[in-house]
Amino acid sequence: MLLFPTRKLGFKMTKCLHLKEVYYFHDIINMLLQCGFKKGTTLFGYGYDFRQSNRIDKAMEGLRIKLQTAYKASGGRKVNIISHSMGGLLVSCFMALHNDVFTRYVNKWICIACPFQGAPGCINGSLLTGLQFVDGLGSFFFVLRWTMHQLLVESPSIYEMMANPEFEWKQQPEIQVWRRQFKDKKTSSVVLETYGPTESITLFEEALRDNEVNYDGRKIAVPFNFSILQWATGTRQILNNAQLPPGVSFYNIYGTSFDTPFDVCYGSETSPINDLSDLCHTIPEYSYVDGDETVPAESAKADGFAAKARVGVGARHRDLLRDKKVLRLIQKWLGVSPKHSRTSRVTNISAAD
After folding, report:
1. Residue 317 designated active-site
2. Distance from C-alpha of 343 to C-alpha of 250, rounded to nearest angstrom
3. I need a surface site. Which of 15, 61, 65, 147 has the fewest CB within 10 A?
4. Is 227 a catalytic residue?
5. Is 18 annotated as catalytic?
Protein backbone atom coordinates (compact mmCIF):
# COMPACT_ATOMS: atom_id res chain seq x y z
CA MET A 1 0.00 0.00 0.00
CA LEU A 2 1.30 3.44 -0.89
CA LEU A 3 0.57 6.93 0.36
CA PHE A 4 2.12 10.05 -1.13
CA PRO A 5 1.37 13.80 -0.97
CA THR A 6 -1.26 14.96 -3.44
CA ARG A 7 -4.99 15.80 -3.50
CA LYS A 8 -8.06 13.70 -2.64
CA LEU A 9 -7.29 10.03 -3.36
CA GLY A 10 -4.13 11.19 -5.06
CA PHE A 11 -5.53 12.37 -8.33
CA LYS A 12 -6.52 15.79 -9.62
CA MET A 13 -7.49 15.65 -13.27
CA THR A 14 -6.49 18.51 -15.58
CA LYS A 15 -8.05 18.31 -19.06
CA CYS A 16 -6.87 21.51 -20.73
CA LEU A 17 -3.42 22.24 -19.39
CA HIS A 18 -0.41 20.07 -20.21
CA LEU A 19 2.64 21.53 -18.49
CA LYS A 20 5.13 19.15 -16.94
CA GLU A 21 5.87 21.70 -14.19
CA VAL A 22 2.23 21.60 -13.11
CA TYR A 23 1.53 17.89 -12.71
CA TYR A 24 4.94 16.53 -11.88
CA PHE A 25 3.72 13.48 -9.89
CA HIS A 26 2.30 12.06 -13.12
CA ASP A 27 5.18 9.65 -13.86
CA ILE A 28 5.28 8.16 -10.37
CA ILE A 29 1.51 7.65 -10.34
CA ASN A 30 1.54 6.03 -13.78
CA MET A 31 4.41 3.76 -12.81
CA LEU A 32 2.65 2.64 -9.63
CA LEU A 33 -0.59 1.95 -11.48
CA GLN A 34 1.36 -0.18 -13.96
CA CYS A 35 2.84 -2.05 -11.01
CA GLY A 36 -0.63 -3.05 -9.86
CA PHE A 37 -1.56 -0.38 -7.33
CA LYS A 38 -5.25 0.56 -7.25
CA LYS A 39 -6.61 4.03 -6.53
CA GLY A 40 -8.46 4.17 -3.25
CA THR A 41 -7.45 0.62 -2.29
CA THR A 42 -3.65 0.43 -2.32
CA LEU A 43 -2.80 3.89 -3.68
CA PHE A 44 -3.72 7.04 -1.79
CA GLY A 45 -2.65 10.66 -1.60
CA TYR A 46 -2.60 13.22 1.15
CA GLY A 47 -2.92 16.91 0.35
CA TYR A 48 -1.84 19.85 2.47
CA ASP A 49 -1.50 23.61 2.25
CA PHE A 50 2.17 24.35 1.47
CA ARG A 51 1.87 27.80 3.08
CA GLN A 52 0.99 26.46 6.52
CA SER A 53 3.18 24.98 9.22
CA ASN A 54 4.32 21.40 8.84
CA ARG A 55 2.97 20.56 12.28
CA ILE A 56 -0.42 22.27 12.56
CA ASP A 57 -3.09 20.11 14.20
CA LYS A 58 -5.22 19.97 11.04
CA ALA A 59 -2.36 18.53 8.98
CA MET A 60 -1.32 16.07 11.67
CA GLU A 61 -4.85 14.82 12.28
CA GLY A 62 -5.51 14.61 8.55
CA LEU A 63 -2.43 12.46 8.02
CA ARG A 64 -3.40 10.21 10.93
CA ILE A 65 -6.84 9.65 9.43
CA LYS A 66 -5.37 9.04 5.96
CA LEU A 67 -2.90 6.46 7.29
CA GLN A 68 -5.68 4.69 9.16
CA THR A 69 -7.95 4.77 6.11
CA ALA A 70 -5.25 3.37 3.82
CA TYR A 71 -4.36 0.67 6.36
CA LYS A 72 -7.97 -0.51 6.64
CA ALA A 73 -8.69 -0.27 2.90
CA SER A 74 -5.85 -2.65 2.09
CA GLY A 75 -6.92 -5.25 4.61
CA GLY A 76 -4.53 -4.31 7.38
CA ARG A 77 -1.33 -4.01 5.39
CA LYS A 78 1.13 -1.37 6.55
CA VAL A 79 1.63 1.75 4.46
CA ASN A 80 4.63 2.77 2.35
CA ILE A 81 5.02 6.54 2.12
CA ILE A 82 6.62 8.52 -0.70
CA SER A 83 7.22 12.19 0.12
CA HIS A 84 8.72 15.00 -1.91
CA SER A 85 10.36 18.23 -0.77
CA MET A 86 8.52 19.85 2.15
CA GLY A 87 6.35 16.74 2.39
CA GLY A 88 9.33 15.12 4.09
CA LEU A 89 9.26 17.73 6.83
CA LEU A 90 5.55 17.14 7.37
CA VAL A 91 6.14 13.38 7.67
CA SER A 92 9.06 14.03 10.05
CA CYS A 93 6.87 16.21 12.26
CA PHE A 94 4.15 13.56 12.31
CA MET A 95 6.69 10.86 13.13
CA ALA A 96 8.06 12.93 16.02
CA LEU A 97 4.68 13.96 17.43
CA HIS A 98 2.80 10.70 16.82
CA ASN A 99 5.52 8.07 16.90
CA ASP A 100 3.16 5.34 18.09
CA VAL A 101 0.75 5.92 15.21
CA PHE A 102 3.63 6.04 12.71
CA THR A 103 4.96 2.75 14.08
CA ARG A 104 1.53 1.11 13.89
CA TYR A 105 0.76 2.01 10.28
CA VAL A 106 4.01 2.66 8.38
CA ASN A 107 6.29 0.07 6.80
CA LYS A 108 8.61 2.09 4.54
CA TRP A 109 9.22 5.77 3.91
CA ILE A 110 10.88 6.90 0.68
CA CYS A 111 11.86 10.56 0.95
CA ILE A 112 12.77 12.64 -2.10
CA ALA A 113 14.50 16.05 -2.10
CA CYS A 114 13.62 17.01 1.46
CA PRO A 115 15.22 20.17 2.93
CA PHE A 116 15.98 18.47 6.25
CA GLN A 117 18.34 21.24 7.38
CA GLY A 118 16.72 24.01 5.38
CA ALA A 119 17.16 25.58 1.95
CA PRO A 120 19.19 28.70 2.88
CA GLY A 121 19.61 30.44 -0.47
CA CYS A 122 16.05 30.02 -1.70
CA ILE A 123 14.41 30.78 1.65
CA ASN A 124 16.53 33.82 2.51
CA GLY A 125 15.94 35.21 -0.95
CA SER A 126 12.21 34.45 -0.70
CA LEU A 127 11.77 36.31 2.58
CA LEU A 128 13.55 39.39 1.27
CA THR A 129 12.65 39.55 -2.42
CA GLY A 130 10.21 36.75 -3.22
CA LEU A 131 10.47 33.69 -5.41
CA GLN A 132 9.78 32.96 -9.07
CA PHE A 133 8.75 29.30 -9.25
CA VAL A 134 8.65 29.00 -13.03
CA ASP A 135 10.29 31.00 -15.83
CA GLY A 136 9.24 31.37 -19.44
CA LEU A 137 5.76 30.38 -20.63
CA GLY A 138 4.99 28.54 -17.42
CA SER A 139 5.33 31.76 -15.40
CA PHE A 140 1.99 32.96 -16.81
CA PHE A 141 0.28 30.26 -14.73
CA PHE A 142 2.00 31.18 -11.46
CA VAL A 143 2.06 34.24 -9.22
CA LEU A 144 4.81 36.80 -9.82
CA ARG A 145 7.92 37.23 -7.67
CA TRP A 146 6.72 40.27 -5.71
CA THR A 147 3.25 38.82 -5.09
CA MET A 148 4.85 35.58 -3.90
CA HIS A 149 7.11 37.60 -1.62
CA GLN A 150 4.15 39.15 0.18
CA LEU A 151 2.62 35.72 0.60
CA LEU A 152 5.78 34.03 1.88
CA VAL A 153 6.49 36.66 4.57
CA GLU A 154 3.35 35.37 6.31
CA SER A 155 3.93 31.68 5.53
CA PRO A 156 4.95 29.51 8.51
CA SER A 157 6.38 26.78 6.28
CA ILE A 158 8.92 29.23 4.83
CA TYR A 159 10.18 30.14 8.30
CA GLU A 160 10.43 26.42 9.07
CA MET A 161 12.74 25.91 6.08
CA MET A 162 15.24 28.56 7.14
CA ALA A 163 18.76 27.22 7.67
CA ASN A 164 19.04 25.12 10.81
CA PRO A 165 21.44 27.09 13.06
CA GLU A 166 22.25 23.91 15.06
CA PHE A 167 23.37 21.94 12.02
CA GLU A 168 27.13 21.70 11.44
CA TRP A 169 27.31 23.06 7.91
CA LYS A 170 30.54 22.56 5.99
CA GLN A 171 30.36 26.30 5.47
CA GLN A 172 27.72 28.33 7.28
CA PRO A 173 25.19 29.92 4.88
CA GLU A 174 25.26 33.72 4.86
CA ILE A 175 23.41 36.75 3.68
CA GLN A 176 25.88 39.35 2.46
CA VAL A 177 25.11 43.03 2.07
CA TRP A 178 27.36 45.61 0.46
CA ARG A 179 26.29 48.62 2.48
CA ARG A 180 27.14 52.30 2.41
CA GLN A 181 27.93 53.74 5.82
CA PHE A 182 28.02 57.48 6.39
CA LYS A 183 30.58 58.97 8.73
CA ASP A 184 29.00 62.39 8.26
CA LYS A 185 26.87 64.12 5.62
CA LYS A 186 29.73 64.25 3.13
CA THR A 187 31.87 61.24 3.96
CA SER A 188 30.92 57.60 3.49
CA SER A 189 32.49 54.19 3.05
CA VAL A 190 31.35 50.84 1.69
CA VAL A 191 31.54 47.71 3.85
CA LEU A 192 30.51 44.09 3.32
CA GLU A 193 28.24 42.95 6.14
CA THR A 194 27.62 39.23 6.68
CA TYR A 195 24.75 37.58 8.52
CA GLY A 196 24.65 33.92 9.53
CA PRO A 197 21.45 31.93 10.30
CA THR A 198 21.08 33.54 13.73
CA GLU A 199 22.25 37.07 12.89
CA SER A 200 20.01 37.18 9.81
CA ILE A 201 16.94 37.63 12.05
CA THR A 202 17.95 41.23 12.80
CA LEU A 203 18.47 41.77 9.06
CA PHE A 204 14.99 40.48 8.23
CA GLU A 205 13.47 42.71 10.90
CA GLU A 206 15.18 45.82 9.60
CA ALA A 207 14.73 45.08 5.89
CA LEU A 208 11.00 44.34 6.25
CA ARG A 209 10.13 47.09 8.72
CA ASP A 210 8.35 49.16 6.04
CA ASN A 211 7.05 46.24 4.00
CA GLU A 212 3.38 46.62 3.12
CA VAL A 213 0.78 45.34 0.70
CA ASN A 214 -1.98 47.29 -1.03
CA TYR A 215 -5.37 45.66 -0.65
CA ASP A 216 -8.68 47.17 -1.72
CA GLY A 217 -7.21 50.66 -1.59
CA ARG A 218 -5.67 50.16 1.84
CA LYS A 219 -2.05 49.71 2.83
CA ILE A 220 -1.45 46.79 5.21
CA ALA A 221 1.85 46.39 7.07
CA VAL A 222 3.55 43.06 6.49
CA PRO A 223 6.76 43.11 8.57
CA PHE A 224 8.91 40.15 9.53
CA ASN A 225 6.64 38.04 11.72
CA PHE A 226 8.24 37.18 15.07
CA SER A 227 5.22 35.15 16.21
CA ILE A 228 5.66 32.87 13.19
CA LEU A 229 9.41 32.74 13.83
CA GLN A 230 8.80 31.58 17.39
CA TRP A 231 6.47 28.86 16.13
CA ALA A 232 8.99 27.82 13.47
CA THR A 233 11.72 27.61 16.10
CA GLY A 234 9.53 25.11 17.93
CA THR A 235 9.07 23.16 14.72
CA ARG A 236 12.83 23.06 14.20
CA GLN A 237 13.29 21.53 17.65
CA ILE A 238 10.67 18.89 16.82
CA LEU A 239 12.47 18.10 13.56
CA ASN A 240 15.84 17.94 15.32
CA ASN A 241 14.43 15.46 17.85
CA ALA A 242 12.56 13.25 15.37
CA GLN A 243 13.49 9.57 15.56
CA LEU A 244 12.78 6.78 13.11
CA PRO A 245 10.92 3.86 14.75
CA PRO A 246 12.94 0.61 14.72
CA GLY A 247 10.49 -1.25 12.47
CA VAL A 248 10.30 1.39 9.72
CA SER A 249 12.63 1.32 6.71
CA PHE A 250 13.79 4.76 5.50
CA TYR A 251 15.23 5.61 2.07
CA ASN A 252 16.55 9.02 1.00
CA ILE A 253 16.88 10.31 -2.57
CA TYR A 254 18.50 13.71 -2.97
CA GLY A 255 19.32 15.83 -6.01
CA THR A 256 22.85 16.57 -7.17
CA SER A 257 24.81 18.05 -10.07
CA PHE A 258 22.97 21.40 -10.27
CA ASP A 259 23.98 24.82 -8.97
CA THR A 260 21.84 25.47 -5.90
CA PRO A 261 21.53 28.86 -4.16
CA PHE A 262 23.34 29.00 -0.83
CA ASP A 263 24.72 32.43 0.09
CA VAL A 264 22.72 35.50 -0.92
CA CYS A 265 24.37 38.83 -1.71
CA TYR A 266 22.72 42.24 -2.10
CA GLY A 267 24.38 45.24 -3.68
CA SER A 268 27.98 45.48 -4.78
CA GLU A 269 31.10 47.40 -3.87
CA THR A 270 30.35 49.90 -6.63
CA SER A 271 26.57 49.94 -6.09
CA PRO A 272 26.00 49.50 -2.36
CA ILE A 273 22.74 49.41 -0.39
CA ASN A 274 22.01 52.67 1.40
CA ASP A 275 19.17 51.45 3.59
CA LEU A 276 18.30 47.84 4.47
CA SER A 277 14.68 48.41 3.52
CA ASP A 278 15.96 48.72 -0.08
CA LEU A 279 16.77 44.99 -0.06
CA CYS A 280 13.14 44.09 -0.78
CA HIS A 281 13.41 45.84 -4.14
CA THR A 282 16.84 44.50 -5.08
CA ILE A 283 17.51 41.37 -7.12
CA PRO A 284 20.12 39.32 -5.23
CA GLU A 285 23.20 37.52 -6.47
CA TYR A 286 23.80 33.97 -5.24
CA SER A 287 26.74 31.75 -4.55
CA TYR A 288 26.02 28.12 -5.31
CA VAL A 289 26.65 24.64 -3.96
CA ASP A 290 25.79 21.19 -5.27
CA GLY A 291 22.12 20.23 -5.12
CA ASP A 292 18.90 20.16 -7.13
CA GLU A 293 18.67 23.93 -7.80
CA THR A 294 16.45 24.34 -4.72
CA VAL A 295 17.73 22.18 -1.86
CA PRO A 296 21.48 21.79 -1.23
CA ALA A 297 22.58 18.14 -1.30
CA GLU A 298 24.24 18.74 2.08
CA SER A 299 20.85 19.53 3.61
CA ALA A 300 18.80 16.91 1.76
CA LYS A 301 21.00 13.97 2.73
CA ALA A 302 21.38 15.06 6.38
CA ASP A 303 18.20 13.33 7.55
CA GLY A 304 19.68 12.08 10.83
CA PHE A 305 17.97 8.69 10.50
CA ALA A 306 19.31 5.15 10.13
CA ALA A 307 18.64 5.02 6.40
CA LYS A 308 18.58 1.78 4.47
CA ALA A 309 20.00 3.76 1.56
CA ARG A 310 20.85 7.32 0.55
CA VAL A 311 21.22 7.92 -3.16
CA GLY A 312 22.17 11.10 -4.99
CA VAL A 313 20.54 11.55 -8.38
CA GLY A 314 21.57 14.18 -10.91
CA ALA A 315 18.27 15.97 -11.44
CA ARG A 316 16.45 19.20 -10.60
CA HIS A 317 14.08 19.48 -7.66
CA ARG A 318 10.84 18.70 -9.52
CA ASP A 319 12.50 16.57 -12.19
CA LEU A 320 13.47 14.03 -9.55
CA LEU A 321 9.84 12.89 -9.57
CA ARG A 322 10.04 11.81 -13.21
CA ASP A 323 13.67 10.73 -13.33
CA LYS A 324 14.05 7.16 -14.60
CA LYS A 325 16.64 6.28 -11.98
CA VAL A 326 14.32 7.49 -9.21
CA LEU A 327 11.45 5.42 -10.62
CA ARG A 328 13.69 2.34 -10.70
CA LEU A 329 14.80 2.94 -7.12
CA ILE A 330 11.19 3.24 -5.94
CA GLN A 331 10.32 -0.02 -7.66
CA LYS A 332 13.36 -1.73 -6.15
CA TRP A 333 12.69 -0.53 -2.60
CA LEU A 334 8.98 -1.33 -2.80
CA GLY A 335 9.71 -4.71 -4.36
CA VAL A 336 7.39 -4.14 -7.34
CA SER A 337 7.62 -4.09 -11.13
CA PRO A 338 5.30 -3.21 -14.03
CA LYS A 339 2.78 -5.98 -14.72
CA HIS A 340 2.42 -5.03 -18.40
CA SER A 341 4.01 -2.64 -20.90
CA ARG A 342 0.82 -0.89 -21.98
CA THR A 343 0.83 2.80 -21.08
CA SER A 344 -1.64 3.78 -18.37
CA ARG A 345 -4.69 5.66 -19.59
CA VAL A 346 -4.61 7.95 -16.56
CA THR A 347 -3.03 11.24 -17.59
CA ASN A 348 -2.56 14.85 -16.53
CA ILE A 349 -2.29 14.26 -12.83
CA SER A 350 -0.96 17.01 -10.60
CA ALA A 351 0.12 16.86 -7.00
CA ALA A 352 0.99 19.24 -4.21
CA ASP A 353 4.62 19.72 -3.25
Report:
1. yes
2. 30
3. 15
4. no
5. no
